[in-house]
Structure formats: C-alpha cells, structure tokens
Amino acid sequence: MAEKSFRLEIISPDRIFYTNNVTMVEYNTVDGEVGVYAEHIPMTQIIAPGRLTITEENGQKTAALLSGFVEITPEKVTILAEAVEWPQNIDVARARRARQRAQQILEQETDERETALAEAALARALVRLDTVEMNE
Ligand code: ATP
C-alpha cells in the first residue's frame, strides 16, 4: 500500500526552495533528529545543522539544512530555512575554508561566545561537506 503523502514547502530567504507532495521528511532540530510523516501532530521546531532527506513517492532527495524553523500543521509542513542548499550548489572550497577558520578559532579561543560561534560555524561546514560527499 502506498504511504500517505502530505504537502512540504521549504522557503528560503530568496525563493521557494522546494514544494511538493512527499511521504516523509527528515532533518535535525535542537532537540535531535526527526522524521515526519503525514498526520504528524501540529508543532513548531528549531532547526539545527544537518542533512535534509525528502522522501517522494519515486525516490529521495537530500540537501544541507543549516538553520531555520519548521511549522507542522494538519495541512502541511513548512520549513522556513535561513540557509538550505542542494549538494550541487554547495561551494566545497568555501565550506573547507569555513571549517579551517572555525577549527583555528577553537584551537586558540577561550572566550565562551567566540567558541560557541566557532562551534556552530564548524557544524555548518561539516554538514555541507558531508552532504556533498554522500552525493558523489
Ligand atoms: P561562510 O562563513 O562561508 O559564510 P556560513 O556557515 O557562515 O559560511 P551561513 O550563515 O550558513 O554561512 O549562510 C549564509 C549564506 O551563504 C546562505 O545563503 C548560505 O546558503 C550561503 N552559503 C554559506 N556557505 C555556503 C557554501 N559553502 N556553499 C554554498 N552556499 C553557502
């Protein structure tokens, strides 16, 4: 029997990144990884950097989802993404530079705020590199 589908909309600051009927969407939140199916209870969530996996009737799509919010309603799931990228649009050299910059800061920095910012930047860079690698 076919899985039930639901409407998924992913809105990035400059465009509608993705909209379609899907059977599942998986992503990372500040409370951990989640997988959402049709008829999920309504809620809002805060995104943490991670791989976004969209399951359509005929296959899967992956992207890097770095930050934003999710709203789950009975009608649809909306991801308001501050940063989201398909693997083919990820600039690998830029992500490697971001990773190196963050690692250098973490080796030297003792300031709590600077450390937290560098840890977050490192997490984003690693997710981007991981998303590209797994699609090679
Ligand atoms: P950087 O330090 O390289 O700017 P960042 O992690 O601080 O990286 P974000 O704040 O997450 O960047 O994103 C800012 C904007 O730049 C977003 O539109 C995001 O999609 C884009 N972006 C950041 N890094 C990359 C990358 N490596 N490839 C493609 N787009 C990127």
SSE layout:
Layout lengths: L5 E7 L2 E8 L1 E6 L2 E5 L6 E4 L3 E7 L2 E14 L3 E10 L6 H17 L3 H23 L2
Parallel strand pairs: 1-8
Antiparallel strand pairs: 1-2, 3-4, 3-6, 5-7, 6-7, 7-8
Short description:
The chain is built from two helices and eight strands. The chain is of the alpha+beta class and 136 residues long. Strands 1, 2, 3, 4, 5, 6, 7 and 8 form an eight-stranded mixed sheet that branches.
Textual characterization of the structure:
With 136 residues, this protein is of the alpha+beta class. It has 2 domains: 6-85, F0F1 ATP synthase delta/epsilon subunit, N-terminal (ATP Synthase, domain 1), CATH 2.60.15.10; 89-134, Single alpha-helices involved in coiled-coils or other helix-helix interfaces (Up-down Bundle), CATH 1.20.5. Helix content is 29%, strand content 45%. Strands 1, 2, 3, 4, 5, 6, 7 and 8 form an 8-stranded mixed β-sheet that branches. Helix 1 packs antiparallel against helix 2 (112-134). The longest helix has 23 residues, at 112-134. Bound molecules: adenosine-5'-triphosphate. The site of adenosine-5'-triphosphate has 12 residues, from strand 8, helix 1 and helix 2. Residues 66, 83, 85, 89-91, 94-95, 98, 121, 124, 128 line the site of adenosine-5'-triphosphate.
